[in-house]
Amino acid sequence: ETQESPITNVKMNWRTMELSWETSKKFPKYRCTIMDRERESIDEEVNTTLCKFPVEQYLPLHEGVFLTIEVLNTNISKSCTFIPGGVNGSAIENFSCVIYNISFMNCTWQAGRGAPGDAQYFLYWQNSR
What we know:
Layout (H helix, E strand, L loop, with lengths): L6 E7 L4 E6 L6 E7 L4 E6 L3 E3 L12 E7 L5 E6 L10 E8 L3 E7 L19
Antiparallel strand pairs: 1-2, 2-5, 3-4, 3-6, 6-7, 8-9
InterPro entries: FN3_sf, Ig-like_fold, IL3Ra_N, TypeI_recpt_CBD
GO cellular component, one term: membrane
Subcellular location: Membrane
């Protein structure tokens, strides 16, 4: 019989790389892990319901990642899989970036032909290795 996890409402803010959750019980310490498909991972230990992963750390998010929250010294955990997706035909088209004056970049794109009228696109930049 599996027990319902007290960890709920898991959210990931991809812009700030912050993982947050709610819990029905207060625990002293958590370990958060983000792992890519190549099994490269980043762990953080915290005493709150918020983990901040380094924004500059490169992980190929577009290929999907696994997120795990563990309550230390217990068998309580919560795992989630993030696989990017969207409406068929909603992927951006004609994506282009131009770097100028060494430290500025201008990117443009068009909404996909199958994208709904209220589609919003966000571009996040991370340092590469």
